[in-house]
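Table S2 (text version). Query chain:
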Amino acid sequence: MEKILVNDILQEASRWGFSLDEQKAKLFVKYYEILLQENQKYNLTRITMPESVLEELFFDSLAGFLKAKNKTVEDLVDLGSGAGFPGIPLKIYFPDLKLTVVDASQKKISFLRFLINKLDLNGINLMHKRAEDLGRGPGRETYSHVTARALAPLPVAVELALPLLKKGGLFWAFKGPSALSELNRAKEIVRRCGGKHIDTITYSLPRSKKKRIVLIFSKENETEKIFPRRAGIPQKRPLEKIIYRMQE
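Corresponding structure-token output:
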């Protein structure tokens, strides 16, 4: 197994322009070791080379928040976190962050429970739950910040995320180059879920030059009662397709 050293983490942080101390760098080293160790068991990620993990998983998870104008995030819900991205890197960087991780896969939740125990991280609530069920139940219009990275096409991600936000809350959608075309298709569901697109953060990964876009939405009004639709429906019948058929 290839290793990542503390100096590798600190050098990569400097490349990104991030301020990172040695204690946090050690946590990222341990995270990498556990990720590789458990990857064969849980099939967590295809990205395993040290430089790629640092760039595409760890620091890319931080970039959207650290490049934003408002960097104050006290509580965060991470939807479909998988192997912990972006939630766990954000928790390492912001130790006081109150983090809720939601994932429908029991295997992923089991991995995350093992991970946070090994990293000795506190203030993390793990939920084995569908985002639709959370949004239709106890989590509805409760949280200040929601994030999703590689969760689903934007019209689906919006329907899952915006119902969770209380008024004034923010949804951070981590996307790739297709983000702006997805944004156009998501306009109606954004409106009906009470949201408004307020900011776009664009950057490229320093080594690979891959383009990243983070779309930020604010919660302006209450979500219509029918959203989110019951579990599985947003993915099977995205609102954009229903609207398109009605216009034919």
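Notes on Table S2: The CA atoms of residues 77 and 146 lie 5 Å apart. Residues 72-247 form a domain with the Rossmann fold fold (CATH 3.40.50.150).
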